[in-house]
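Cont'd.
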Amino acid sequence: MMVDHMRMARNSIRANRFRSFLTMLGVIIGVASVVTVVGIGEGIKHQVNRQSETVTKNIISVRPGRIAERDGNGVITRINILPASIQTGSITLNDAKEIELIDGVERVVPMALVSGTVKYDNKEYGGATVIATKHDFVDTVSQKIDFGGFYGDVDKEKRVAVIGKSIAEDFFGEVVPIGKTFTFRDQEYIVRGVFEQFPIAPLTQNMNYNSTIFIPENVGYNLSGSKPQLYELLVSVKPEYDKQSVVRAIDQRIKSVHGGQEDFTVLRSDEMSILTSKTFTLVSSTTVLIAIISLLVGGIGIMNVMLVTVSERAREIGIRKAVGASNSQIKWQFLTESMVLSFWGSLSGLLVAGIVMLLLRIFTNLEPVVNLSVVIFAIIGSVVIGTVFGVAPARKAARKDPIDSLRSM
Amino acid sequence: MPIINLKDVSRLYGFGDATTVALEDINLEINKGEFVAIMGPSGSGKSTLMNVIGLLDRPTYGAFTLHGDNVEALKDDQRAKVRRDKIGFVFQSFSLLPNMNVLENVALPLAYQGANLHHRILQARTMLERVGLGDRSYFLPTQLSGGQVQRVAIARSLINQPEIIIADEPTGNLDSIASRLVMELLADIHKMGNTILMVTHNPELTRYATRVLFMRDGMIVHDEKKSLGDISESSENTKFFEETTNEEHDIAGVSAMLTVETDQGKYVKMNPQSTKKSRKPSVKRPTKKKKYKRSKKS
């Protein structure tokens, strides 16, 4: 009998295509938004993981401001989103020297932001970040140089620069702008090398190195006056040492240097993804909540249309009852119809989500992924909602008096 | 033993002062194999009687046995089961489901019986062949003519091999040729031993019936057994559009207007031609609509 109900549901949905589409619209939007939002979140997590596994592998990052709180075991318990970039002053070159003395630390690379805009061909370019760093940055981040090379220790005082891929393409307008000069704070710099494309991770507190211009540390420090603005210290750990114990050692050392003040954060690279996902959870949980509400509204939409349908199809109900349909058979027919509607709504929603995610992949740097459990949840959730909201119309249909129904029309 | 037995069956609508009596103390026995034509003016209770016999409606009072079983107190689902297995309906119009093709429409009662798809389609095809519409199996109802729709409806009413076929003005919307086809089909079915109850307004059609009932104001006022092929004589004397004009109306200037009573109430009919041939009714009509009194019952 269920098969028959489904066939009948298909018939009546087909007979009113446009109305059926409108009925499903709420469910479509709900499912599409849930799946897309979760997909974006998952995608970002993957991207950050990939970044920390390749570029910043085995690296500990020391940052100004209290980004994350840890419990006694060193596990991150809380994230503060805001203060990260605000307290740039709290880390100094002195801290870097202190960290170098810690057992197990291989190298410390300070990353200093230098303010100002770059000019090329009399055009200003606002999309670039200028960072002053040591020559061993390139060894620390394990990232290949596509063209040219990184500056060496001997280039400390020279005005040379290594640029990210986006800078080469957007600013210089060519793939290999080696030997080109640009102006920064009234001084000319020569491009020495171009980095390979860094894996990007949206929504992180990591710098996007693809649109960064790297200049030698001393050149940068001179521009910043007495105190360079350090936004991060990259610490590489000797392979035989445990990263977590080094993290703890750095934490204690700087705390004592800063006089017990916890105005900095020490993070393992693999913790970056936790940081990101925790940040994104805040965004996504509200969005998912809204999406679930829209799914509920979709269910109410189904109920409304089905209730109207019941009155409109009184004649049909009358005929069915006259030829021997029992009340429960009528009830199940209408219930099946709302279930089928919500099921197809969820499938269409998945299709929409797929298209949206594909477009996001093509036109933005987000790489959303389809999460199977969310897909299953969306389908089951919609069918459950369709069933729950289908009960009232189905009961109304089942209770219709056959004579009144036959008399209508 | 009669297949249908109504004993003092009444059907009332509404409460208190608004109570109207649709059926009043009907006593009726119908035997197997009878072809009963039910005639009477609109609002006389024909349809209500059909609905009660077809188990779509419940009598307010009285006993109703179908095949010896008491059915007046059955629950909704049990009544649905009786309708499904023992009764076939043919309505005046819109009797097919528009979203389904002809074959699916015919097979619908079997679907509710839970028969498997193969059996259903086979049976439905046989029935369609029988009404001469085997080549229209996959048409939608909207693609058929009125007469064809009614023949499909008859095929559907036959598919569960019912004991009674109830037809409420099956030819009401048809022209004379289509109507003859439909009636001959019903006559055929009758010849094979089926019991048929048919409501009609057309005296001509009584020629197919073996028994004619006349109803008025919820009562059977005349019950005539006749032989097949004859038109019921008393039907000639019955008029269906009651002339309600009288001297008062003439003075008021509304003599051309005629009111027609239907299930939905009184309508004013603007076409006096339709009553030209009507003669004085053979049965006296009470001047006032009867109000049912409860005291009378107890």
